[in-house]
Automatic annotation (TrEMBL):
It comes from the Bacteria. This is Chitooligosaccharide deacetylase. One of its GO terms (molecular function) is hydrolase activity, acting on carbon-nitrogen (but not peptide) bonds. GO terms for biological process: xylan catabolic process. The lineage of its organism: Bacteria, Pseudomonadati, Pseudomonadota, Alphaproteobacteria, Hyphomicrobiales. Residues 1-20 are annotated as: Disordered. Residues 51-272 form the NodB homology domain. It comes from Microvirga lotononidis. Belongs to the polysaccharide deacetylase family. PROSITE patterns: NODB. Is involved in generating a small heat-stable compound (Nod), an acylated oligomer of N-acetylglucosamine, that stimulates mitosis in various plant protoplasts.
């Protein structure tokens, strides 16, 4: 573990390569959903297990949020990536099977939704392996994509994920195009950077631990449209971080639907999943060698 504060780039990876998007597309839209359910509340404080109203924020996902969002995505014929915690797969197998049956990609999102902490690799080994085990046992899938719970990661964790077969991470905030991580032991996973402007948690949830006003439709759509438009100008990927307990709620669902309608007006957008982006990136890498 390094706690060396020497001035240097924290990320040694070079800037993202200028690989073209497939089929002459100008940019990419990557709808990603983080299926935390109650585990995000347990990850904050294990004692929340007995705080049933707190837990019910997450319980909304299986009861309402996931079915509604699957219906929305089917109506727009959009395939997405759902990063699911192992805990959620075990607690809500029927809701998670419906995601898989609808043809969406399943990604890894930890087991307990523990925020990765540098210097605590042993805990993360257990968290990562238990997440893999749950997704395999409940859904029969071995994910190739990983999104860090609560948006944190560190070098040893990236190496662990790579060694476990994770081909891409979607957690970093430092680019608008995919790139490959560089680790002390060689190439790391591909990074499909996220855009925090598209994190619905920032706009659409309020609770006792973080009481704040919600952002309304016009504010959110204004941010999402502007962010998307300029990402398109720059030929980037608009990576979304949505949560069924946020965007599955009635007014947030409408905001998301309006945003999908907005993006659909353009015919030069590659609507895609993390797996497809990783496949494409690897093909471009091979061709460039
Ligand atoms: Zn999460």
């Amino acid at each position: 573990m390094s706690t060396d504060p020497t001035p240097r780039p924290a990320n040694p990876a070079p800037p993202a390569p200028e690989f073209p998007w497939p089929d002459g597309k100008r940019c990419a839209l990557f709808p990603g959903f983080d299926v935390d359910a109650e585990s995000v509340w347990l990850g904050m404080d294990r004692r929340n297990a007995d705080r049933l109203v707190t837990m019910s924020y997450g319980g909304y996902e299986a009861r309402v949020g996931i079915p509604k969002l699957l219906e929305l995505l089917a109506r727009y014929e959009v395939k997405a990536t759902f990063f699911i915690t192992g805990w959620t797969a075990e607690a809500h197998p029927v809701a998670c099977e419906a995601i898989l049956k609808a043809g969406h990609e399943i990604g890894h999102h930890g087991y307990w939704h523990l925020r990765p902490e540098p210097g605590n690799l042993a805990t993360m080994v257990e968290e990562v392996d238990r997440g893999f085990d749950a997704l395999k046992r409940v859904l029969g899938v071995k994910p190739i994509g990983y999104r860090a719970p609560s948006g944190e990661s560190f070098t040893e964790l990236l190496a662990l994920l790579r060694d476990r077969g994770i081909r891409y991470s979607s957690s970093w905030r430092d680019d608008i195009r995919p790139y490959r991580h560089v680790l002390p032991t060689g190439p790391g996973p591909i990074e499909i950077p996220v855009n925090y402007s598209f994190d619905d948690w920032n706009f659409g949830i309020t609770h006792r631990m973080s009481p704040r006003a919600l952002f309304g439709r016009e504010e959110v759509l204004s941010i999402w449209r502007d962010e998307f438009d300029q990402t398109r100008e720059w030929s980037g990927v608009a990576t979304m971080i949505m949560h069924p307990q946020v965007s599955g709620r009635p007014m947030r669902y409408r905001i998301l639907e309006e945003f999908l309608q907005y993006v659909r007006r353009y015919d030069d957008v590659w609507w895609t999943t993390g797996r497809e982006i990783a496949d494409h990136f690897e093909a471009c890498e091979s061709a460039a060698r």
